[in-house]
Amino acid sequence: MSYTVGQVSGFAGVTVRTLHHYDRSGLLVPSERSPGGYRLYGEADLARLQQILFYRELGFGLEEIAEILADPQANALDQLRARHKALVEQIGQLGRLVEVAERAMEVQQTGVRLSPQERFEVFGEITFDLSYATEAGLKWGNSAGHQEAMSRAAAHSKEDWARIMREAAAWRAELVKAYDEGEPAGGRRAMALAEEHRQHITRWFTPCPPAMHRRIADDFAEDPRAFALVVPPSEQRPRLAAFLHAAVRANASESERESESESESENGAGSR
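Now predict its structure.
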């Protein structure tokens, strides 16, 4: 039994134009023609169309489908394995995007409670990149520190934020000055600035032990969006983020050594 283009289009769910394209490209050439020259599809043609639609649903391009159908035994299994791997990866990416979107809604609901005008007045050039905020939420969201920081940020008044930003601006000016004057990242001046930054986080957002500060500084070095939260682009210098990163790591290491030394001293005193 043979079927016209219109009939095949109706029960296969594809357009007549698509069937004509498959014919012209050689992917699905009807096995028959009517006396008037119209395309007629037989059972074998419909079986081939079913295969084409199956591979299309999996995301294969028409050239790839043509290669598979030309030698199905040699190509189909390898192609399907590759497509399966790609689909699994895509599912994972989509899952992460769903989570990011959910966290973005949370950020909008629980973030800094200032009007747009107040945000501009207080923050100026410092802007919160929502894509970074949501990614940071995914990275840190389950930690008690991140949850406390979000909660305290949401509770700060406009006056609180104005004071926070004044402190940050004064610290930032000293950081840029130290960098411009060629201070070593592992020197006392740079390490003191790193410690000041750590104490600023503790004072206004969440306790920030050296290990946490080190991870925060890693973000500054790796992601320009993170560094822009502390130094706006107009005030940045080449490798300033790397300078701050190195200063934070040096200060964190020294703080940890001092804590270990104090602990050993206390243990020694207690044993006497």
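The first strand starts at residue 3 and ends at 4.
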